[in-house]
């Protein structure tokens, strides 16, 4: 499993570098898809 994870990480890094993207995004989750409760809800 570790070998696969390492290969997958290296593959993603190579793809992002080739596309000129940063290695890590500012937000881990897409903020437009996060639903927050209203002010009165808990």
UniProtKB/TrEMBL annotation:
<protein>
    <recommendedName>
        <fullName>NADH dehydrogenase [ubiquinone] 1 beta subcomplex subunit 11, mitochondrial</fullName>
    </recommendedName>
</protein>
<keyword id="KW-0812">Transmembrane</keyword>
<keyword id="KW-0999">Mitochondrion inner membrane</keyword>
<keyword id="KW-0496">Mitochondrion</keyword>
<comment type="subunit">
    <text>Complex I is composed of 45 different subunits. Interacts with BCAP31.</text>
</comment>
<keyword id="KW-0472">Membrane</keyword>
<keyword id="KW-0249">Electron transport</keyword>
<dbReference type="GO" id="GO:0005743">
    <property type="term" value="C:mitochondrial inner membrane"/>
</dbReference>
<keyword id="KW-1133">Transmembrane helix</keyword>
<dbReference type="InterPro" id="IPR019329">
    <property type="entry name" value="NADH_UbQ_OxRdtase_ESSS_su"/>
</dbReference>
<keyword id="KW-0809">Transit peptide</keyword>
<comment type="function">
    <text>Accessory subunit of the mitochondrial membrane respiratory chain NADH dehydrogenase (Complex I), that is believed not to be involved in catalysis. Complex I functions in the transfer of electrons from NADH to the respiratory chain. The immediate electron acceptor for the enzyme is believed to be ubiquinone.</text>
</comment>
<keyword id="KW-0679">Respiratory chain</keyword>
<keyword id="KW-0813">Transport</keyword>
<comment type="similarity">
    <text>Belongs to the complex I NDUFB11 subunit family.</text>
</comment>
<dbReference type="Pfam" id="PF10183">
    <property type="entry name" value="ESSS"/>
</dbReference>
């Amino acid at each position: 499993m570790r070998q696969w994870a390492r290969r997958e990480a290296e593959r993603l890094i190579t793809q992002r570098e080739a596309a000129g993207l940063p290695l890590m995004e500012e937000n881990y989750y897409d903020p437009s898809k996060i639903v927050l409760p209203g002010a009165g809800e808990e």
